[in-house]
Design goal:
Layout (H helix, E strand, L loop, with lengths): L3 E5 L11 H13 L3 E6 L8 E2 L4 E2 L6 H8 L4 E3 L10 E4 L3 H5 L4 H4 L7 H12 L4 E4 L3 H7 L4 E2 L14 H8 L3 E2 L8 E3 L4 E4 L8 H18 L1
Parallel strand pairs: 1-2, 1-6, 2-5, 6-7, 7-11, 8-9
Antiparallel strand pairs: 3-4, 10-11
Helix pairs in contact: 1-8
Protein name: GAL3A protein
InterPro entries: Class_I_gatase-like
Length: 224
């Protein structure tokens, strides 16, 4: 039987939602591996809406579920309806929506809170020993919820290639172990059944980000 994988989105667009290329890569690789993706998003307002041309917030108001439906081609469910019992694994792509709509990491860093629905889903998969795939910024959710876990967001030394490396330092302060990796590599925390990869935390060619996410999906399904 095909593995059923929940994919949780955070809107549509890198600066205020899910990173579209990451979300697409997750869906493509799940399809290629013969898995069935079931897409969910919380039915809540976005923290704000960013004009992706100017890179600045606007006065618009948008809904996370409604915007995520753009990526899912309309085939999406309210996160409140997710039932871990019928699913084999969970993936949360990156994008600033993870840090703005699924949590308050964007404004509070390591002192952030995580949406109750999102926390409930992550804890349910973790308690059921079902694998969780996280890429780009989304490993911060695991760092916040599962002290002592092992994850990667790429490198912990900031440079032109790794402009968000300070994220790794904040995660270490939460008690997790950060493992440096290249953009095409993944880290598997077998004890916590977490599979993480850096994706666009790295200034890398888009095909390398796509390949890294493919490796994450394959490792996730191997554990499922």
């Amino acid at each position: 039987m095909a593995k059923r994988v929940a994919v949780v989105l955070a809107g549509c667009g890198v600066f205020d939602g899910s990173e579209v290329h990451e979300a697409s890569a997750v869906l493509v690789h799940l399809s290629r591996e013969g898995a069935q993706a079931e897409v969910y998003a919380p039915n809540v307002p976005q923290m704000h809406v960013v004009d992706h041309v100017k890179g600045q917030p606007t006065q618009e108001q948008r809904n996370v579920l409604v915007e995520s439906a753009r990526i899912a081609r309309g085939n999406i469910k309210d996160l409140a309806k997710l039932d871990v019992k019928g699913l084999d694994a969970l993936i949360i792509p990156g994008g600033f929506g993870v840090a703005k709509n699924l949590s308050t990491w964007a404004t509070q860093g390591k002192n952030c809170s995580i949406s109750k629905e999102v926390e409930g889903v992550l804890r349910a998969f973790h308690a059921a020993h079902k694998p969780i795939g996280l890429c780009c910024i989304s490993p911060v959710l695991a760092a916040k919820l599962f002290p002592g876990c092992e994850v990667t967001v790429g490198h912990d030394t900031e440079c032109e290639q790794w402009p968000y490396a300070k994220t790794a330092e904040a995660m270490k302060e939460l008690g997790c172990r950060h493992v440096n990796s290249q953009v095409t590599e993944v880290h598997v925390d077998a004890r916590n059944r977490l599979v993480t990869t850096s994706a666009f935390m790295c200034n890398a060619p888009i095909h390398q980000v796509h390949d890294g996410i493919g490796n994450m999906v394959r490792e996730l399904l191997r554990l499922a």
